Amino acid sequence: MTQKEFEERTRRLITAEDYHLVENLYMAAGNMGKDEFCKEMRAMCAYDGANDHIELRQCLKEIGRRVGGMDVELSFLKKAVKKEQEELAEFLIGKASAYNDTDFYSKAVKLVGQKQVTLCKIRMGLPLWSEDMQYINDNLK
Hints:
7 helices; 2 strands; elongated
C-alpha cells in the first residue's frame, strides 16, 4: 500500500516518517486487507484537525520501529542461512563426487535444489551424473 492509498482510505494526511512506520505495521498485520487495516488505524490514531493529519500514538510508533528492525534482522539471517546451505551443499557435492555417494548428492539437492547442484558441479568441474544430465535435458528443451 502506498502513502497515497493510506491517506485516501483513512481520509487523513500522514507524514512520510510516520507512514514508514505504518508500512511496517501493515506488513506485520499478515492477511489483513487494506481497508480493514486503514479503518483500524483511523480508529486507533489521534487526529489533528488543524492540519488534517493523522498522528500515530507513541506505542504504535515504537511497535512500527521494532517490527522494522526485526524485518531487517530476519532478512540478514535468511541470507546467512542461505549462504551456509550453499556452502554445505558444495561440500556435499564434492564428497558425493569423490566417493560416488548418492546420499550426499541427495542431501545437497534437498538443501539447494537440483538446478543449483547441477550448476555447482559444472562450476567445480565435476563429472555430471545421470540426474544432472536429465535435469539439463528437461530444462533446455
